[in-house]
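User: I've been trying to design a sequence by hand for this structure and keep getting stuck. Would you show me what you'd pick, starting by listing the structure so we're on the same page?

Assistant: Good idea, let's start from the same input. This is the structure you sent:
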């Protein structure tokens, strides 16, 4: 459809304001923008009508460009907002409103590709609610859903710029912490664990107690470890999962991480005598 005129194919991305050359020649550009946005939503008939209007203006051999109606401008703005909102919702978990697995996979690939250019590294904390099946069995799934929502709120508090929380699946979540050093990553993960443990869960239901365990995998910048092979998103998550297993097997309600070649537990859990260490291929 847009092949009828080369300029029409150069429509702005959803959510971006069309300015300058991107906007096109006034009224023609607005018709083209509406056509592109409607086509992206599968509304082909309406898109075709706006495209025809744009083409009619192009070939009308008008002396001067007609004034753009304000209503048409508002229609473009509305469609762009709806398009941006629809895309954002497609990347969110419907229950917790955290990002979903689709967004997590996309951002991890981007971050792992670019982290070597960052001043600091990239940390991934895989977090799992402890004994969550018992919560559902004892208090019901509706209350279990409320617990998941509240846990996400607690995990997201105080995250640094660029960091985010995503639902990995079930009662597992991931904190992605770009551009932080190893010590800061451990501190962030441990504070998140503490917030969950200290939250007044009894206000939701008498006898309710919720804790989380976490495995924190850290990838340093490439310029700090040039001999270290690059890792994929899957490898980074595998390392975090291995450390999560360590936290679970070492008593739960803990953050496990690796430093100086050894697995350690953060915060109050550091004093535990028994730490179950697992090995992941390629983990240094």
């Amino acid at each position: 459809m847009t092949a009828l005129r080369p300029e029409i194919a150069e429509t702005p991305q959803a959510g971006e304001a069309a300015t300058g050359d991107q906007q096109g020649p006034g009224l023609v550009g607005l018709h083209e923008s509406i056509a592109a946005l409607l086509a992206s939503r599968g509304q082909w008939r309406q898109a075709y009508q706006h495209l025809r209007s744009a083409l009619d203006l192009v070939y009308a051999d008008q002396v001067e460009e007609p004034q753009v109606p304000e209503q048409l401008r508002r229609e473009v703005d509305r469609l762009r907002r709806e398009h941006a909102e629809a895309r954002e919702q497609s990347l969110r978990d419907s229950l917790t409103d955290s990002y979903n697995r689709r967004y997590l996979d996309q951002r991890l690939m981007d971050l792992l590709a670019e982290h070597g250019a960052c001043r600091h590294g990239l940390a991934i904390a895989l977090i799992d609610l402890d004994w969550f099946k018992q919560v559902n069995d004892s208090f019901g799934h509706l209350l279990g859903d409320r617990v998941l929502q509240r846990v996400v709120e607690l995990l997201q508090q105080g995250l640094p710029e660029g960091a985010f929380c995503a639902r990995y699946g079930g009662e597992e979540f991931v904190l992605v912490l770009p551009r932080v050093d190893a010590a800061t990553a451990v501190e962030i993960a441990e504070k998140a664990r503490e917030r969950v443990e200290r939250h007044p869960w009894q206000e939701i239901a008498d006898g309710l107690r919720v804790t989380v365990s976490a495995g924190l995998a850290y990838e340093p910048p490439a310029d700090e470890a040039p001999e270290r092979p690059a890792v994929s998103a899957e490898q980074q998550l595998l390392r975090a999962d291995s450390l999560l297993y360590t936290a679970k097997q070492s008593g739960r309600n803990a953050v496990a991480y690796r430093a100086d070649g050894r697995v350690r537990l953060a915060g109050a859990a550091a004093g535990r005598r028994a730490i179950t260490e697992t090995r992941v291929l390629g983990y240094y």
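That's my pick for every position. To get oriented when you compare it with your attempt: Residues 70-90 form the longest helix (21 residues). The longest strand covers residues 121-129.
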